[in-house]
Amino acid sequence: MSLSRAISLAALFARTELQYAMAYRTNFVFGVLRLLVVIGTSVGAALVLFQYTDAMNGWTLPMMVVLLGVYYMVQGLEDLVFLPSVTKLMEHVRLGTLDYILLKPVNSQFYVSVRHLEPTQLASVVVGAGVVVAGAARMEPAATFVDAILFALVLLCGLALVYALLIALGTLSFWFVRMENLLVIFQSFIEAGRFPVDIYPGWLRLALSTVVPIGIAVTVPAQAIAGRTDLVGVLAMLGAAAGALAFSAWFWRQGVRAYSGASA
Predict the structure, then answer these.
(1) Is 263 contained in some domain?
(2) CA 217 to CA 237: how far, in whole Å?
(3) Which stretches does DSSP call E strand in the chain?
(4) What's the CA gap between 141 and 227, in Å, rounded?
(5) Dihedral of alpha carbons 236, 239, 245, 247, sign
(6) Residue 26 lies in domain
(7) Number of compact structural domains in the chain
C-alpha cells in the first residue's frame, strides 16, 4: 500500500470519527474540559513541588514541565488512535467479525491500527505540545535547533515503541481471545510515565524501559530537548523502534494465520 493511499485512508477515518463525535457535542466538550483539568492539575502539582526544591534527581522545573507535556502528547496519541483501534480489534476477534476487515483490499494491520479514534484526546496532544513549548522556553541553556530535531526524532521512536506493544497485545487475542485485563495493566504502567524514569527503583525502571516502554517514550524526548542525550542514545532509540515495528508486523501475520472467524 502506497504512502499517499495510507494518508488518504487515515484522513478519511479521522473525518468519519470526528463527525460521529460532533453528533454528541456536549459530551465532546465535557471530554475536552476534563482533559484540560487533568493536565492543569498535573502542571500545578509540579509547580507546588518545586517550591520546596530546585531539582529532583537532576530534573529542574522547566525540564519537568517539558516531561509532563511529552507525557500528555504520548498518552493523548495513544488514546486518540492506538488504544481505541486495538480495543475494537479485540472485539472483532472475539465476535469473529474480523473477516470483513481481512477481505478488504488494504493492509489489515494498518486498517485495524487507525480505523477508530477518540477525537477528544486531540486536546491532550495539542495542550501537551503547548506545555512542552512553555517548559522549553524557560530552560537554561535554551534548547537549540539540533535539540528540537532530536526531540522530534526520539518522540516518534517512543510512539513507535508504544504502538508496537499495543498492537502486539491486540494480536495476542487471536490465541487468547479475552485480553482486556492486559490493557488495564498497560494503562496502569502508562500512568507511571508522568515522572522521569530514572527516579524509580531499578526493577520498575527496567520495566518502564523494556516491558512497557512508556518510560523511555516520555523521558528520552524530554532529555533530548534539554540537550541531555547523545548520538548513541538516539541510535539506540532508532534501532529499538525499527526492531519493535518489524516484530509487530511479523507477529500480526502469525496471528492472522491462527485466526478462525465467522466463516470457520
Answers:
(1) no
(2) 9
(3) 55-56, 59-60
(4) 9
(5) negative
(6) 3-258
(7) 1
- Tell me the per-residue pLDDT of 31-86, one tens digit each, with 9 for 90 and over: 888 888 888 888 888 888 888 888 777 788 888 899 899 999 998 888 888 888 88
Asked whether residue 233 is assigned to any structural domain, the reply reads: yes
User: Using an 8 Å Cβ cutoff, are 221 and 151 in contact?
Assistant: yes
pLDDT digits (tens, 9 = 90+) for 194-247: 777 777 777 666 776 666 677 788 888 888 888 888 888 889 889 989 999 999
In angstroms and rounded to an integer, the radius of gyration of the C-alpha atoms of the chain is: 19
- pLDDT reading at 262 higher than 60: no
Q: 61 Cβ partners below 8 Å, 6+ apart?
A: 46, 47, 50, 54, 138
CB–CB of 155/238 below 8 Å?
A: no
- Domain-located, residue 184: yes
Q: Is residue 264 situated within a structural domain?
A: no
